[in-house]
Write a structure and sequence with these properties.
Layout (H helix, E strand, L loop, with lengths): L5 H14 L21 E11 L10 H12 L8 E10 L5 E13 L3 H17 L6 E9 L2
Antiparallel strand pairs: 1-3, 1-4, 2-3
Length: 146
C-alpha cells in the first residue's frame, strides 16, 4: 500500500519531467519547403516590407526609394520584382499605434542560399542607409507558372 506522502512526490516528478520536454528529442515534422505543384514550378516568394519613416529626419523620398531599388535591389534580382505602396502600422514599445507609409517588394526565386544572402544584404543596406530598425521578411513556398 502506498503512503500519501509518496503521491505528491510522484506528481512533482511528472511535472518536472513534463517541463524538460525538448523538441530535439521528438521533433515535429518541418513544413514542406517545396509545394506539390499541379501547375507551374516550385519557387519561393519573399515579401520585404520597408518603412519610409526614419528614426531621425524626414521620411524616405520617392526619389531616394527608386534610387535604392535601382542600385541595390535590381542588380541582385535582375529577372524582375514587383513593388507596391502600402500603408503599414505597428504598436511601438511605448504602446502607441504607429501608422507609416511603407513599400513592399515581392521577389520570386529558387530559395537557394545565394538568393537568401542577396535578400539579407538588401535588408541590411536599407536599414543602414535610411536609419531603420528592421525590414520585415516573409518567405513562402509557392507554385509559379509564367
Amino acid at each position: 500500500m502506498t503512503s500519501r506522502p509518496l503521491l505528491p512526490a510522484l506528481l512533482a516528478a511528472l511535472f518536472v519531467a513534463a517541463g524538460c520536454y525538448s523538441a530535439e528529442e521528438d521533433p515535429l515534422p518541418a513544413p514542406t519547403a517545396e509545394p506539390t505543384c499541379e501547375s507551374g514550378d516550385p519557387m519561393v516568394r519573399t515579401e520585404l516590407f520597408f518603412g519610409m519613416d526614419r528614426l531621425e529626419g524626414p521620411p524616405v523620398t520617392q526619389e531616394e526609394w527608386q534610387e535604392f531599388v535601382d542600385t541595390v535591389v535590381t542588380p541582385r534580382f535582375e529577372d524582375g520584382l514587383t513593388q507596391f505602396d502600402v500603408d503599414g502600422q505597428y504598436r511601438a514599445s511605448t504602446g502607441e499605434l504607429i501608422h507609416e507609409d511603407s513599400r513592399l517588394i515581392m521577389l520570386l526565386h529558387d530559395g537557394g542560399q545565394a538568393a537568401s544572402d542577396a535578400i539579407d544584404a538588401i535588408r541590411e543596406q536599407y536599414k543602414q542607409r535610411f536609419d531603420q530598425e528592421s525590414v520585415l521578411r516573409i518567405d513562402e513556398a509557392v507554385c509559379v507558372a509564367f
